[in-house]
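SAMPLE LOG
Freezer: B-3
Tube label: C17
Construct: single chain, 211 aa
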Amino acid sequence: MDHKAIFDLLAERIGAGAIAFHEDPIEPWAEIAVGRIAEACLFLRDDPRLAFDQLMCLSGLDWDGYDENGKGKSVAILGYQDDGTPEPGDRTATGDLGVAYHLYSHSLRHKFTLRVRMPRDRNVVPTVSGVWPTASWHEREAWDLVGIRFGGHPDLRRMLLEEDWVGHPLRKDYVMPGSWSGVPLQGQPFSENPFAPAAPAPAGGDTPAEG
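STRUCTURE (predicted):
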């Protein structure tokens, strides 16, 4: 089934909760109201015409630096400078946050993408872990790195970083720390990788004489 036909079935079910269909040449997607996302996902899973039995991926999004239509130049995520110190940043991000859901039906062999979008200061979306249990892990990662809260999640805690880590590193306004728990952090350029293989000895160099 093509993407627009899938969206039309979804719109019949949740009405205005299916906000819009975006005919992107790379990845068409449906924009869904935040409060209706769990209902939409349950319908997409259970309707035999759709049968989306797999959540392939769930990703947190930071639209800061884009206009309201998602167009424009992205804002680079800050990292470390060549000397290993954090890149300074004083910009306050104001753009929306969101979540993208990539679905697949093994029986019908079609794919579909959903997105929700919410203001940065109201970044809560219902969990879909009750629809696809694997969402529990994806949602924890989106919370850890982007700071999106998933209402009703059974165990929403950090997944990659320590629980006392400050902030969410994939937000566009995140500034990397200079230290953590009293331990200095220093980003190293690839040219100074301490694990790189040693350079070969120059030809004709002195070698120990064999006895």
